[in-house]
UniProtKB/TrEMBL annotation:
Record protein name field: Flagellar protein FlgN
Record keywords, A-Z: Bacterial flagellum biogenesis
Highest taxon above the source species: Bacteria
A Pfam family: FlgN
Family statement drawn from the similarity comment of this UniProt entry: Belongs to the FlgN family.
GO biological process, one term: bacterial-type flagellum assembly
Alphabetized InterPro entries for the sequence: FlgN-like, FlgN-like_sf
Keyword Amino-acid biosynthesis set for record: no
Role of this protein: Required for the efficient initiation of filament assembly.
Membrane-spanning parts: none
Length: 148
């Protein structure tokens, strides 16, 4: 059985997790930009590859957020922005500023990815609609040819 972690270890794990998540969200953002470009180029093969690359990143980020919530609970803090603000304020001065910056960067990365995801969802719906219209026209044209 693993030894339970102490509060100092929990804080270190949270800080390392935030730094790791920033890197992962930046990777995800880049893949989402490429996904958008693939939609606009009608490159279905590239889309599938990009979506396959995004899945493990999203799964990792989800696990990381769950782990951060567990660690926050272990520290007796709420799993909210207020709880994180309390934790960041309690850090030693030499860590407070850089960790605040990492946390703000993480929040910005998350918002940016959410916005890009919404835009990609709209493009995806338009992409699917156009493909459906093209397929329907081809079917219709084929039917007309059969009548000739």
């Amino acid at each position: 059985m693993a030894n339970p972690i102490n509060k100092q270890q929990a804080i270190m794990l949270i800080m390392k997790g935030i730094q790791h998540d920033v890197r992962q969200y930046k990777q995800l953002h880049q893949l989402m930009v490429e996904q958008q470009e693939s939609y606009l180029k009608f490159d279905g093969e590239a889309l599938q590859e990009l979506i396959a690359k995004q899945r493990p990143l999203i799964a990792n980020l989800s696990r990381s957020a769950a782990k951060r919530s567990e660690l926050m609970a272990l520290l007796g803090l709420s799993q909210t922005k207020a709880g994180m603000a309390t934790l960041l304020q309690a850090l030693p001065e030499k860590l407070k500023k850089p960790m605040n910056e990492y946390w703000q960067t993480l929040e910005l990365c998350i918002r940016s990815c959410h916005q890009l995801n919404q835009l990609n969802g709209q493009i995806s719906a338009s992409y699917s609609e156009m493909l459906q219209q093209v397929n329907n026209k081809q079917s219709y044209s084929s039917g007309n040819l059969m009548q000739l």
